[in-house]
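note to self: dont lose this again. the chain is below, predicted strucutre after it. 255 aa total, dont forget to put it in the shared folder this time
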Amino acid sequence: MTDDDGRALRERVAMACRVLAVTGLVEHILGHVSARVGTEALLVRGRGPNERGLAFTVADDVQRVGLDGAGDVPPGWKAPIELPIHTEVLRARPEVTAVVHAHPPAVVAASVAGLPWLPLVGAYDIPAARLAQGGIPVWPRSALVRRRDLAERMVAALGDRPVVVLRGHGLVAVATGDPADAVAAAVTAALAVDSLARMTLAVAATGAPPRPIPAEELAELPDLGAAFNVSAMWRHLEARALREGPAAPPSAPFP
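---
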């Protein structure tokens, strides 16, 4: 990876954090995104001495560290305390190139309520329907995932799926392929789970039991492909973050 490539990937991770903020998947200073670089390192959003929250993330908030958490980072910068979420996913699943950890309030509420993750909708949100059809695992812990042993259990719950819900905590979404594209794919997967959570809560609020749509209806849903579900959606999300989100300074936040 060249320095220019590294900078571009840091910019992508930073934009992903800003997208999470503007879409409401994270609040304030909680949540983080990472991208794999090589076999033993990752770029991850950490916190510097002038932390302002994910909505204001810049590329210099994203630094390279090894899977052991060590790296040549700026003074005052710290990796997230839940770095094991990222490192243990990358250790266990070599094909994964991006990890997103977010705290969508609707996902937290639906998980605490013990609501089922069912394909309630069809054409309204095809990615959400497909995720639910394939199964959305739930890790039944609300712990801060700050240790490898906890992260290993979470990864076991994730299995080979693209998302796992952490009960009373949030979610983890992962993706494969080119790291920059994978960051976008993991963000859009997180958004799909949030969409499903909000719909599930809305149905539950009516008093009616959530019911999946029939299998024959699911079979009618086309695969619109990554060019639409990820690339086009990412362009929209990036434009939305630039338009609706606060301006992030181009310069490094470190003294």
